[in-house]
Specification:
It is a single chain. This protein is mainly alpha-helical. The protein has one domain. It is 47% helix and 0% strand. It is built from three helices and no strands. Helix 1 crosses helix 2 and helix 2 runs antiparallel to helix 3 (62-71). The longest helix is centred in the N-terminal third of the chain and has 13 residues, at 17-29.
Length: 75
């Protein structure tokens, strides 16, 4: 199973809404093709949290994460 990696060294049990926000911003900006201002970060975090039932979004498959993120691209 392929999952995300994150630069943070926090243990899995230490995930919070704040670490989830950091994860989303890092994932979006890591390619250099977009910035946090191009997406509704709060909606991505809320939706991904409901999908994963956890604040640790590393548990999500990358395709699932990017489907959520693509839903909240700002026009």
């Amino acid at each position: 199973m392929t999952t995300f990696s994150i630069r943070s060294s926090r243990p899995l049990g230490d995930s919070t809404r704040e670490t989830a926000i950091e994860f989303v911003i890092d994932a979006i900006e890591s390619t250099g093709a977009a910035t946090r201002d191009d997406f509704d970060i709060d909606q991505i975090v809320t939706t991904a949290h409901a999908l994963a039932d956890d604040w640790d979004f590393r548990l999500l498959q990358p395709d699932a994460f990017w489907r959520v993120a693509s839903t909240f691209i700002r026009a």
